[in-house]
Amino acid sequence: MAKLEIKPIQFDQQTLAYYQKVFPANIKKGALWQTSPNTKENIYCWLMEASSHPKKVIFSIFYDNRLRGHVGLSEIDKVARTGRIGLCLDSLTYGNGVAARAIKYLINYARGTLDLRIIMVESAEEGVESNDPRLMRVFGSLGFVISPDLRHQWLHLD
Q1: What sign has the CA pseudo-torsion 3, 90, 128, 30?
Q2: 102: how many CB neighbours lie within 10 A of its CB?
Q3: 104: burial class by Cβ within 10 Å (0-12, 13-18, 19+)?
Q4: Helix (H, G, I), strand (E, B) or coil at 125
């Protein structure tokens, strides 16, 4: 099995070059998507904002010693003890168990370090079916269940 490492996000040239390559030119700023040049400076600003936000935590995923994506939690609410998972992986990792291991790592981090009780993930936007059934199977195999009242939301309950 290839080596998988999950580490706090770094702000080095490898990280900036990777995200400049994989991110589209449209970057989400606040609640709106805005067209923005896909420069290292813009990527750096996005990474700085995301990693220093008090309600977010991001980890880099290295597979075979190469940066292949990230996994993180957003909308962390320490009072309600909830958070929302985000995952971005490069297609070269598909079928190798990387998504499952990264999500399992994040669940353990959320439970152990942040003391979260409910971890959420949306499978698709409202009214749009999931475009990656493999990932939905991964969530199901890790104990996530579809919320009975919100069709597109998966929950992992403590």
Answers
A1: positive
A2: 25
A3: middle
A4: coil
Q: What is the pLDDT of residue 131?
A: 52
Residue bearing tokens 């971890």: 119
Please state the domain extents for the chain.
4-157
Q: How far is CA 7 from the centre of its chain?
A: 13
Question: 30: Cβ–Cβ under 8 A, 6 or more apart, which residues?
Answer: none
- Name the token pair of 30: 């606040």
CA–CA distance, 60 with 58 (Å, rounded to integer): 7
Q: Which two tokens stand for residue 142?
A: 């890790």
Distance CA 137, CA 47 (A): 29
What does the pLDDT look like over 61-110, one tens digit per residue? 998 888 888 888 989 999 999 999 888 887 777 788 888 899 999 999 99
The hierarchical CATH code for the domain 4-157 is 3.40.630.30
- Closest by alpha carbon to 102, among 3, 1, 6? 6
Of residues 158, 145, 142, 140, the one with CA closest to residue 80: 158
Tokens representing residue 117 in the block: 């009780």
Q: Which two tokens stand for residue 96?
A: 């190798």
Query: What is the spatial distance between Cα 66 and Cα 145, in angstroms, rounded to a whole number?
Result: 32
Q: Which two tokens stand for residue 153?
A: 């939301």
